[in-house]
Amino acid sequence: MKSFAYHRPTALPDAVKLAGDPGADARVIAGGQSLLPAMKLRLSQPTDLIDLAGVADLNGIRIEGGTLSIGSMTTHASVGASDEVRRAFPALAALAGDIGDRQVRNRGTIGGSLANNDPAACYPAAVLGSGATVHTDRRSIVADDFFVGLFETALEPGELITSVGFPVQQRAAYVRIRQQASHFALVGVFVGTGPDGGVRVAVTGAGQNGVFRVDAFEKALAQRFEPAALDGIGVDAGMLMTDLHAGADFRAHLIGVLAKRAVEQARARTSR
């Protein structure tokens, strides 16, 4: 691993200043579950590492009106164990409590997961599927504009995620088939009905360009929110990826199966 300067700011303005230093090739470390392995393999070799763990303002969970706000440095374990999240958005609590293993859940953070935007990560499906908003030190970015491609987001150099605002869902569920070695989603489907009654369906682990919405599913479920509404509707395998774990055709089949399961779970579970 290449040597680097280590910084541990305790205030957000200091972290923003360090991250925006034009004279350094700085990387921000949230939970470090993706960055540190990349550094060990020398796939990432920053000159400066900015640890956000000491910035208290980036941690915490609160309800503001009809929005569940989660600080970017809040760990997966904290989201999964939060009574507030379990009451307001049980599908999100269930999703967070099943990410990775204990180490990943207790070190990984929601902000780090979203900034990394792994194409098989679970949080992007929840953010896109619920119509959440990602707040940064500069602006607010709606979910549909945030995810750009594989490991790519709308974040600009030096821009830091501060929190994520989730509209409290009328009903929602996330169902996935996990890849047993990595615990990432082979395919994961999030289905949610928002405060305005609109239906959103987001898929992770399958798209060639990362997480994506399924418009045909959304239209069908808006008319009739039950598994049978998806009969005869599929996802084009041509837009899905093939790798050593599964082919595009198999992933297309799984998306339909998991979407129906998610609808069934959502019907049995209300978020308020």
TrEMBL record:
Domain (FAD-binding PCMH-type): residue spans on this chain: 1-171
Domain of life per record: Bacteria
Gene3D superfamilies for this protein: 3.30.465.10, CO dehydrogenase flavoprotein, C-terminal domain (3.30.390.50), Uridine Diphospho-n-acetylenolpyruvylglucosamine Reductase, domain 2 (3.30.43.10)
EC number(s) per entry: 1.2.5.3
Gene Ontology molecular function: any one: FAD binding
SUPFAM superfamilies: CO dehydrogenase flavoprotein C-terminal domain-like, FAD-binding/transporter-associated domain-like
Keywords per UniProt: FAD, Flavoprotein, Oxidoreductase
Protein name: Carbon monoxide dehydrogenase medium chain
